[in-house]
Amino acid sequence: MDIFRNPNFVKLFFAALASQMGTTIGNMAFAFYLLEHFSNQPYYATLAELMYSLPTIFVFFIVGVVADKFDRKKVAENCDWVRAGLTVLLFGSLFIHSVPLIFFILFLRSAVTKFFFPAENSLVQGILKKEQYAQAAGLNQILFSLFMVFGVGLGALAYKTVGIHGAVVVDFISFVASGLLIRACKIPKHARLPNGNVSWKEISISGAAKDFKEGILYIYRNKLLASLIFGFFVFGFVSGGFAILPMFTMKYKYSPDNYELYASFFAIALGVGLIAGSAIAAYLSGKVKTYKLMVFPIFIASTLVFVLGFTDTLSIYLAAVFLLGICIGPVNVAIGGWMPKIVHPRLMGRVSGWIDPMMMFAQSLTLGAIALLFPKIVVSIDYLYYGMGMIILAVSIFYAMTLPKLSRTAAAQESSSGPLRKKKSEINSAL
């Protein structure tokens, strides 16, 4: 593929791979660590997941501004160095067995991570051609799918072989490798600083509030973009459920003694399905309207989630998970290829900075609710699956009612105004 002839993209791609590895392996290892040492207190594992999503609420209003105002390459690189340092502190805190301190460091490390992906995502947009956006989205989806396949298994393997301390060391090495790869990139200034040089002295609370408002207005005035962002928010509820429910399902329903192994089977089934779904989406992307790659798979996914709660047979459960992955793949590819086409590069950081907060806020609410409700009030995991199925079904109906009209309107505006006038109008509307 031509996209891999771009050395900057190759380095950023593998930097994202290393960064994701540093996040996934440690997170999974901690989940197994807490489930083993506090098996009668499952809310500990839920709280650990909450430490990965909750920080978004505290930093979301400056994440996008930082990605747009400062050197995006330095922002992404420095995120890796800071996370590496926090991982060293995490390694030391494990020896004193202080769960509150461990949670606090996980919280800080996750807060820093929130700055990495908007900056890295904006860099990718700046170094690729418009026709390569869908390819990049497909590759990122495959990368995510690979971690779905191997992430839980690698976390379980690391925990069983080198222990929680060894898993933390893997985290440290991954963050350092990501930082070195980003430093090696030779990215032009217009991609790193699309808004020109800005110093810390020029940043103020009022200025940050103005930039924050600018991002909100840009999304609000672009109805298609607003619909996609709303979808991310709703998907956050589902993401929160799937962050912890598979492990709970295996431990408390299917295999209490071998839940690590069967949780890995869940990840493999979902990941392989995502890869297959991404391949199908790549084949259909030029033949099918983008919104159709979202509406129909989301509707089918809602029925499959109901199956997850209804069945008591592990083979049927895993088969439904595989089919669910096939449905999610096209949705992620469609959104990932659509977003860069409708967002001006000057505002990509602020728009990207809204996606994670919306998802993480919803995810935090879900994890908090699970920690409070299960197993004291909601004694059956099945009802949690039914709730997620209803949410996904509602999203499919919403998109079926809105996306066809909005996509036609966006296409008509682009063909009538031309790309240059369209870019100018986007800037003016945002301002």
Write the layout of secondary structure elements.
Blueprint: H1 7-37, H2 43-53, H3 56-69, H4 72-94, H5 99-127, H6 133-161, H7 163-183, H8 189-192, H9 205-221, H10 223-254, H11 259-284, H12 292-310, H13 314-342, H14 348-373, H15 382-430
Helix pairs in contact: 1-2, 1-5, 1-6, 1-7, 2-5, 2-14, 3-5, 3-9, 3-14, 4-5, 4-7, 5-14, 6-7, 6-11, 6-13, 9-15, 10-11, 10-13, 10-14, 10-15, 11-13, 12-13, 12-15
Top keywords for this entry?
431 residues, mainly alpha, Growth Hormone, Chain: A, 15 helices
Describe the structure.
Keywords: Cell membrane, Membrane, Transmembrane, Transmembrane helix, Transport. InterPro entries: Drug_antiport (IPR004751), MFS (IPR011701), MFS_dom (IPR020846), MFS_trans_sf (IPR036259). The chain is mostly helical and 431 residues long. It has a single domain (2-186, 206-430), classed as MFS general substrate transporter like domains (Growth Hormone, Chain: A, Up-down Bundle), CATH 1.20.1250.20. It is 84% helix and 0% strand. The protein has helices at 7-37, 43-53, 56-69, 72-94, 99-127, 133-161, 163-183, 189-192, 205-221, 223-254, 259-284, 292-310, 314-342, 348-373, 382-430. The longest helix is centred in the C-terminal third of the chain and has 49 residues, at 382-430. The two termini are 38 Å apart. Mean pLDDT is 76; it is low at 419-431.
